Amino acid sequence: MAAPRPSSSRTPSSRLEGILADTDRIQELSDSDGEYEDMGTATQEEMANIAYLESVRIPIEDGLTTESSAVTEETLQAVLPFLESNPNDFPLNIFGLPQLQREKHINFLKHALGDYPRQFAMMDASRPWLLYWSLQGLTALGYDISEYRERVAHTFTLAQHPEGGYGGGYGQLPHLAATYAAVLSIVMVGGSEAYESINRKAMWRYLGQMKQPDGGFTMAPGGEEDIRGAFCALVVLSLLNIPIKLPPDAPARTHGLTSFLDNLGEWVSECQTYEGGISATPLNEAHGAYAFCGVGCLSIMGPPKEMLNKYLNMSTLIHWLSSRQCAPEGGYNGRTNKLVDGCYSHWVGGCWSIVEAATASTNICNRSALARYILSAAQAKKGGLIDKPGKKPDAYHSCYNLAGLSHAQHRYTYEAKVQEDLGGGDLDAPYYWKAQGDYDDEKVWGDTDIVNEVHPIFVIPFKAVHDCRRYFMEKEGF
């Protein structure tokens, strides 16, 4: 049965010592040189952090212990020391939280763009992702990635399949996930040489093979159909200004479809579950990453206010997204009864700007709590960002933690009136977003903790988005 959570009668310092005591953890802290030292009396910053965390605890907890609830509690006990104190001994910002370790993260991501040992052979097909995650993480940190322009163009020239799309590397079959990461990487480094390395006509024909009669897209010829395919396909179609008319040999044409957009909104609608979230395919479990793919897909098709309200139940979606923010951690999980994970700082946190644009609402999520989790619990001691304390850093979690921090810090608004006045065109809705200042209410970051703006749909820099779109808008045909 449910019972009120008893408030702690211990002093902050004794409570902190208890949390930091030698107990079983989910996983040994990979960046720790040993056991925690006795913290002694709590500092003023620690006492303020503890008071904050007590204020956001859920006051009622289920008295039934399950395997899931036990792991959740273990996770909380592993995370709390980082939210309450500073085990990594990072310099603190003016709010008493660890500063963003910018240079350490830059060095980590630059290293991630280098060679990998043979143990990473299993990641061979993911090479486009490793480039995208690393490059996007670097741009968010303010690092100039132009030095990688030639290498990126060369890498993806080899990975491009003669029949269109990109595989993981030379000789590999194309896949929409690899294609998405490759195109975003090329767009980020920019320049005519990189742009012209893309065979847009072959890409058009390749995407035509992915379009399905029910409106969705498969990830590869004969592969699985899910909402990732729809989002990845529309990102590529929009950025490269590829016609939305299906190629003559597209199999979906035999079922009466003529456009990449035919039946797509209805198919995304069917992916919304009874909980309010969005699943990979109709009748599956809602998931944070699929939620972003769903709202992102609709926001490429047209203005968020029009498309999301037409195809989604917004009240249940907002409820589900809100339920993903863990208390008192402040970070997000990806599914019901799952653990907090830094990557959902973007996959769920990135949905909020789109949802706010669709509902004409503001401040409907707790951005400061998310930023607190990223700065306090998601920075690895030696560089890179992580899932949660005890996990090792990687480019994936670095990219999406930093994107989540950008969502928390910057206001992204949709200029519906500008689009209406200009008349709009095919898949041009993403180009009416703009960054409109920073969030100042209850912020927990200092000036040195601010990351760069990230386009809310494409998750790359705004300038890269507009430079690419402008380049291909000025080209006639393929």
From TrEMBL:
It comes from the Eukaryota. Heterodimer of an alpha and a beta subunit. The keyword Zinc applies. Residues 100-460 form the Prenyltransferase alpha-alpha toroid domain. The lineage of its organism: Eukaryota, Fungi, Dikarya, Ascomycota, Pezizomycotina. Its cofactor is Zn(2+). Pfam families: Prenyltrans (PF00432). It catalyses: L-cysteinyl-[protein] + (2E,6E)-farnesyl diphosphate = S-(2E,6E)-farnesyl-L-cysteinyl-[protein] + diphosphate. Belongs to the protein prenyltransferase subunit beta family. This is Protein farnesyltransferase subunit beta. Catalyzes the transfer of a farnesyl moiety from farnesyl diphosphate to a cysteine at the fourth position from the C-terminus of several proteins. The beta subunit is responsible for peptide-binding. Keywords: Metal-binding, Prenyltransferase, Repeat, Transferase, Zinc. The keyword Cell inner membrane does not apply. Its EC number is 2.5.1.58. Gene3D superfamilies: 1.50.10.20. GO terms for cellular component: protein farnesyltransferase complex. InterPro entries: FTB, PGGT1B-like, Prenyltrans, Terpenoid_cyclase/PrenylTrfase. GO terms for molecular function: protein farnesyltransferase activity; zinc ion binding. Binds 1 zinc ion per subunit. One of its GO terms (biological process) is prenylation.
